[in-house]
């Protein structure tokens, strides 16, 4: 049964692994190129500009050099899991039912559970191993670009590197495979995969992710140079952190509103704009960069659990259905 499953899916598997390998190769190439650029211009390891080693003009030039890559390539990584789910997961069982080949397989002393398990393992395990490696390589390869992308805690940085790349792929394959078992139509299974995947991804990112860990909080006085989003290095929130909320206070300690749209070039800095609006201090809640792997583990566990539940649903439907 394993050999038959491999023969049925080998072309699709090989093409999938070639795509993953190509994406990984692009990540490695740009990592090496960016590190060489940073080293050549004496700004290696810089996150913000300062008056000593990290020259603002050199960092700006680095941003201009690689901004297109940092803006566009994460979209490839963002789309890859759902595409794998659509083209590797959705046809896995649906095509068998459409062509009637499942009848032959299930009449050769092969039980339904064994047929389901073997096809799923042969199709999914190599892809999941490949995307796990891709996610880890991505976390390493995209690190030098944090000065452009302002960290990996926010979208799309969080979703396009680390452990979640594999977890998202597992969910997408589970969605596609289960939809194919339930509807027995490849096109319907592909459509359901992309819709359900996007709903789950956006829903988790928008409602759950911020509460995985208790947010850190920081308070600062504007007179001491405190700001939010300042590139001067004096912001109460690190530039690579995920900012959740900010509360502003006047001199009496009363919460007040801040209108960023009223800031002008005459203010010369965000701190001057804050003072002009009678804001004396502020408190910010955020997730710092050192929580990246912890939050990755939590989100990966959520998506793997949902994917496992979907696979159980598919197995149950296969056993019960005549």
TrEMBL record:
Protein name in the entry: Transporter
Membrane spanning stretches: 12-30, 72-94, 120-142, 163-183, 189-208, 301-319
Superkingdom classification of source: Bacteria
Keyword vocabulary terms for this entry: Membrane, Transmembrane, Transmembrane helix
Organism per entry: Luedemannella helvata
UniProt signal peptide: none
């Amino acid at each position: 049964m394993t050999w038959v499953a491999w023969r049925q899916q080998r072309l699709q598997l090989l093409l999938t692994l070639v795509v993953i390998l190509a994406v990984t190769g692009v990540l490695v190439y740009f990592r090496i190129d960016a590190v060489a650029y940073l080293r050549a211009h004496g700004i290696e390891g810089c996150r913000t500009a300062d008056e000593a080693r990290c020259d603002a003009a050199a960092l700006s030039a680095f941003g201009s050099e690689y901004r297109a890559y940092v803006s566009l390539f994460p979209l490839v990584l963002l789309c890859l899991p759902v595409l794998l789910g659509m083209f590797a997961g959705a046809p896995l069982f649906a095509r068998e039912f459409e062509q009637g080949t499942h009848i032959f397989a299930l009449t050769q002393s092969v039980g339904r559970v064994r047929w389901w398990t073997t096809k799923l393992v042969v199709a999914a395990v190599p892809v999941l191993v490949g995307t796990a490696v891709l996610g880890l390589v991505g976390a390493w390869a995209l690190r030098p670009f944090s000065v452009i992308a302002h960290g990996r805690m926010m979208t799309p940085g969080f979703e396009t590197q680390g452990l979640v790349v594999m977890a998202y792929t597992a969910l997408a394959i589970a969605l596609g495979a289960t939809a194919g078992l339930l509807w027995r139509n490849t096109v319907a299974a592909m459509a359901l995969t992309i819709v359900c995947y996007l709903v789950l991804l956006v829903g988790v990112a928008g409602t759950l992710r911020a509460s995985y860990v208790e947010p850190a909080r920081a308070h600062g006085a504007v007179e001491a140079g405190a700001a939010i989003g300042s590139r001067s290095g004096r912001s109460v929130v690190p530039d690579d952190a995920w900012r959740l909320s900010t509360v502003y206070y006047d001199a009496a300690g009363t919460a007040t509103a801040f209108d960023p749209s009223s800031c002008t070039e005459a203010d010369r800095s965000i701190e001057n704009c804050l003072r002009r609006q009678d804001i004396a201090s502020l408190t910010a809640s955020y997730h710092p960069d050192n929580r990246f792997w912890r939050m990755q583990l939590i989100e990966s566990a959520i998506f793997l659990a949902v994917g496992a539940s979907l696979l159980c649903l598919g197995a149950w439907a296969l056993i019960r259905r005549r």
